[in-house]
Amino acid sequence: MARPPLLRKLAGEPGRVGRVALVACSKVKLTPAQIERRPHQFDIFSPVGRHAVPAQELYQGQLFKLSRAWLESKRPGKEWAILSAKHGLVLPEQMIEPYDLALGDLTWEQQKRWGQRVRSQLAALWGIDDVIYLILAGESYRHHLHLPMSEDVFGHWARERKARGTRGRMGIGVLKQMLKRGASYP
Question: Which of 37, 119, 156, 163 lies 20 to 30 angstroms, CA to CA, from 170?
């Protein structure tokens, strides 16, 4: 049985990953009180705190949840990661604690450093030049990444709407509708 691409990469085995989706985190997260009410195993020897949960469960914003559901239905079993203002790149199963920081809270220079940090993390995991990154995030997240091979999923949908003559802005409400209805992407 072949190993998943991420495990091949971590093991130093050859094999191109292909496409990796990057999803923006959300401001709305589980609170420490909500985490304490959840049934979970806490490992006293773990280096993470008692309020840590898998990143894919921490983020509770509607756009994040819809993006995750869209990925899981359109690209099941494929690689994806979360763009976090605090942590940079976060894998879905990575244990993290709630935090209160948005990319917009950072200065322009801090955002540039954030982009460099994420690029370094991407390079270490999947590489930069051999992977197409599907980005499900707003402009503030995309701007500082400077990925040579990336596809702006939301931008693609906006161009499709414009080509069909659909009027109105491609706001967050429209993005949510497209994710809910399972819009296609090449």
Answer: 119
In the block, which residue shows the tokens 């894998």?
91
pLDDT tens per residue, range 70-116: 999 888 888 999 999 999 999 999 999 999 999 999 999 999 999 99
Residue 134 to residues 36, 79, 111, 186, Cα–Cα distance (Å): 34, 10, 20, 11
CB 66 within 8 A of CB 180: yes
Gap between the Cα atoms of 106 and 154, Å rounded: 23
Phi, psi at 110, each rounded to 5°:
-65, -35
Name the nearest CA neighbour of 179 among 80, 67, 59: 67
The closest of 105, 131, 164, 167 to 183, measured between CA atoms, is: 164
Instruction: Name the strand (E) or helix (H) holding 83.
Output: strand 80-84
Domains in the chain: boundaries: 16-180
User: Could you tell me if 136 and 21 are in contact, meaning their C-beta atoms sit under 8 angstroms apart?
Assistant: yes
Angle value at C-alpha 114, between 120 and 176, nearest 5 degrees = 105
Terminus-to-terminus CA distance in the chain, angstroms? 28
